Amino acid sequence: xxxxxxxxxxxxxxxxxxxxxxxxxxxxxxxxxxxxxxxxxxxxxxxxxxxxxxxxxxxxxxxxxxxxxxxxxxxxxxxxxxxxxxxxxxxxxxxxxxxxxx
Length: 102
What we know:
9% helix
């Protein structure tokens, strides 16, 4: 389990689980709003979370590119997976807009 800031995406990674051909990451994300009390405007003594979440993401490589897929607040390793254990890219493409972003 690794913890820390992912400098490429500037997202706080709370937990990382390595699987055969994929990685599951539990992340805190920042919304980007300037008046958000969760992400910004923290005082020196504030010890709250480093953003919204945590949310689970599936990170995998497809055609040479890293794809980050939002899973949700609860880790469901069967989401977007085939019975053989591969990533079901068709199911990911056909997800509803409500599922697409947290």
